[in-house]
Amino acid sequence: MNRTVTVTLQCPWGVIKGLKWPSTSPSNVPVRRVLAIHGWLDNANSFLPLMGEGKPDDMEVVAIDLPGHGLSTHKFPGFCYQATDWVKDVYIVSKALDWDKFHLIGHSMGAGVSMLFAATFPHKILSATFIDGMAPIHAEPEVAVSNLKNSIASWEALHKKKSAEPQYLTKEEAIGKLMKSNQHLDERSASILLQRGSQPVGEGKYAFTRDLQLKQASSLRLSFEHVRQFFRSLECPTCIILARDGIKFQQEENRKHILSLQQRLGKKFQFHQVDGTHHVHMIHPERVRPLWLKFLEGNATYEPPIKVVLNKSTNKSTSDKESTNSHHPTIIPSKL
Q: Rounded to 5 degrees, what are φ and ψ at 311?
């Protein structure tokens, strides 16, 4: 079992907590850095089974608790957590870790966040792996008005619920409640998540640590066309691993995204289906881990595009690795 250390990263509203599996290679061996992003209402512990055995010695993995999850600070009262906000949070994490280039692995909602981040910052990402998810939930413009109305109504209901007497449960009751609300989990996986997802309050009782505001309906969602533009901006090697008995929504839209990635990325793209439910990476990590590691090995020589910045004095584009006086042509990420 690989040892973990606690990570605490400062952010404008508090702290982002996480787990770190350090590299155990000699100091002269380059380190492969991996940032792991969990799914909705989960936490960093969702990657414990996947990283617990078989992690390569040269790999350093940081799994974070997204804001409002696990042990991380909640956002301010009334805040509506949106997919695009998570991207900013991941950016803050990458800056706090001082990581210039790294690999991404995300599960469910974390897969959608990883996709948005990899598309937005292609110069930072060496590879992206999506487990039983690949995109944020779409919503077309026709439902924008009703979505906003529903979001405000859900905020009002959750605000009242937060103001009510808190509910404390025994550990067994908390595991049962988590398994009832998420039928993809088995008892062992639920217990692993609750290690970071609950805290003792005395007399053998526990309280969930997650922010109730996470359950607020989104006030504004990206449309299919919005999401397709992000997929078109993906440049890194990309691996999608779906569970055969996983989440079943927007399947036709996801099929279109997969076909597009196959056509554009070619050998840099892999798609796999494995037996299991939505949390297959926790319940059967042995089905996911070898596919992920083989994918990483097969794309070990990939180099991200050079970041292009705008020179304010000349209003011309230039690489952040080149002088503005360089005689070499500017390298611009390919338009995909």
A: -80, 110
**Global confidence as pTM:** 0.89
CA distance 189 to 144: 36
> pLDDT digit string (tens) for 45-87?
999 999 988 899 999 999 999 999 999 999 988 888 999 999 9
Provide the CA 244 distance to its chain's centre, in angstroms: 20
Amino acid present at 161: K
CA distance 99 to 164: 42
CA distance 287 to 37: 19
53: Cβ contacts below 8 Å, ≥ 6 apart: 1, 2, 285, 289
How many CB atoms neighbour CB 318 within 10 A?
Answer: 19
Strand bridging mode 316-319 / 238-245: unpaired
**Contact criterion met (CB below 8 Å) for 291 and 275:** no
Given phi > 0 = left and psi -120 to 50 = alpha, else beta, which region is 318? beta
Q: What backbone torsions phi and psi does residue 232 show, to the nearest 5 degrees?
A: -65, -20
CA–CA separation, 84 vs 307, rounded Å? 21
CB within 8 A of 243, min separation 6: which ones?
132, 273, 274, 275, 276, 277, 278, 280
The catalytic residue positions are 108
